[in-house]
Write a structure and sequence with these properties.
By secondary structure, the protein is α+β, with helices and mostly antiparallel strands. The protein has 13 helices and six strands. A four-stranded mixed beta sheet has the order 2-1-3-4, sandwiched between helices. It has a two-stranded antiparallel sheet with strand order 5-6. β3 and β4 form a beta hairpin.
């Protein structure tokens, strides 16, 4: 095997580009290999689950799932750290990483497959990626198959006629809040990228590449657009900020987006899984959200709880989490 790591992923996978951005920031030698370009035998040899990204280490070990990949790599390559020294900011960064992976994916998947223009654009990109040498006739036929299959899967992230306005209104609100927060800093937690940047950015990068969501980002939020571009090749431009410095513009995101939307949903999702429900509903603000439970998210919630439990002095953090509506359920 060649020296360095091999990242098997896809340009249209938010979790794949998240890992690529992290490796670039850390200057870890790696090869970016598109899933369709990797041999099936190599993928099968190292993958435990049929998902991307898959990172193959120089020692010949396969690692999957973007959050555990970063956690594992951070132990091997701790500098420059992606974790703020400030205890509050440190955990909030982990919370936003989880929020990006699990709630931001709802925005991304919904916008990608909700409208005709986005369906055609996305299905065409996937079909060309999977069959770069296909004739136009075969390409169009495969793109049509991809479109039907993916549009039929929007239920997985909770996108339906009832939730569509909630998803889109929430995304537009998040754009405004995020643009204000990034107006005076290059990254979410100051002068260098944090754990939370990578998780949230992966979704925003994909949203930016699609017609409808991309137009919203390009036309209304210049600071978010700069951040999307910056995170393609992130670098340390300064120090992390303290929670006191971050709070004025980051706290509204925690309260309105994480606490009132994502956190209520994640606890309801966990309860539905424990009770064996095939579908669950939860009131978010003044609207009812209904979807089938997501099994994987219960596992990622457990990882976030473990990080919370490892904090020795939680007094200042608990005050922030309580104010944001994110404390309940962390001690479970």
């Amino acid at each position: 095997m060649a020296e360095g790591y091999r990242i098997i992923g896809a340009e249209m996978s938010p979790y794949s580009v998240k890992i690529r951005s992290y490796f670039r920031y850390k200057a870890i030698p790696h090869q970016w290999l598109l899933r369709n370009a990797a041999s099936q035998a190599e993928y099968d040899k190292y993958a435990r689950m049929p998902i991307i990204p898959l990172v193959i280490t120089p020692e010949g070990t396969g690692i999957q799932d973007s959050t555990p990949i970063i956690d594992a790599m951070e132990k091997l390559h701790p500098e420059p750290s992606i974790h703020p020294d400030d205890t509050v900011a440190n955990f909030i960064s982990a919370l936003i990483e989880e929020f990006g992976d699990e709630w931001g994916n709802k925005w991304m998947f919904h916008y990608r497959w909700a409208r005709d223009v986005d369906q055609r654009a996305s299905a065409g990109r996937i079909a060309r990626m999977r069959g770069p040498a296909a004739s136009e006739e075969k390409h169009e036929a495969f793109a049509a198959q991809v479109r039907v299959r993916m549009v039929d899967r929007v239920w997985f992230v909770g996108s339906n006629e009832m939730t569509a306005p909630q998803i889109e209104n929430g995304f537009v609100e998040m754009l405004g809040l995020l643009d204000s927060h990034l107006a005076n800093r290059p990254y979410l937690f100051g002068g260098r990228p944090a754990f939370g940047d990578f998780g949230l950015w992966g979704q925003f990068y994909e949203l930016w590449t699609d017609p409808t969501a991309g137009a919203l980002i390009e036309g209304n939020t210049p600071h978010v657009l700069d951040w999307v571009h910056r995170m393609l090749w992130p670098r340390a431009e300064g120090a992390f900020e303290s929670w006191t410095e971050l709070a004025p513009t980051l706290m509204p995101i925690l309260v309105r987006q994480v606490g009132k939307q994502f956190w209520l949903w994640t606890l309801a999702n966990e309860t539905a899984l424990k009770q064996g429900q095939e579908e669950f509903s939860v009131t978010l603000g003044d609207k009812v959200w209904t979807q089938k439970p997501q099994k994987y998210h219960a596992r990622s919630l457990g990882m976030l709880r473990a990080k919370y439990a490892a904090i020795a002095d939680k007094s200042a953090l608990d005050m922030v989490l309580a104010a944001a509506g994110c404390l309940a359920g962390l001690r479970a």
